[in-house]
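As practice, study what follows.
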Amino acid sequence: MQRLFTALRRLNPPGLSLTAASTLARLDREGPHRLTELATREGVTQPAMTQLVSRLERDGLAARAADPEDGRVVLVEITPAGRELMARRRRIRADHINEILGTLSEDDRRAVDAALPVLNRLADLIPQ
């Protein structure tokens, strides 16, 4: 599993650090987050996340906005440009995976297909 995870990480298109890509993916998937929550969920310090969000803002991929329920709280959200970048990265990665899967025998592809439901359940057990 570790070798597969490492190999799949290498399929990520260049241009974003893994933490930046993970942060944008979380914002795309789950919606706006407080900066402190993002830092905790991504496993980095708050100052590191502050710097990352500043870079994402500078690049037009994320924005800070006031929480509609508490104007004192700042939320970080993905921008339309950030969503497009993440969609493009997913397409590129999916193309690479499909190309690799195409080199497998039919029996091996069926075995991968059969394993996917269990792998999805395993992924659901990992805390986010």
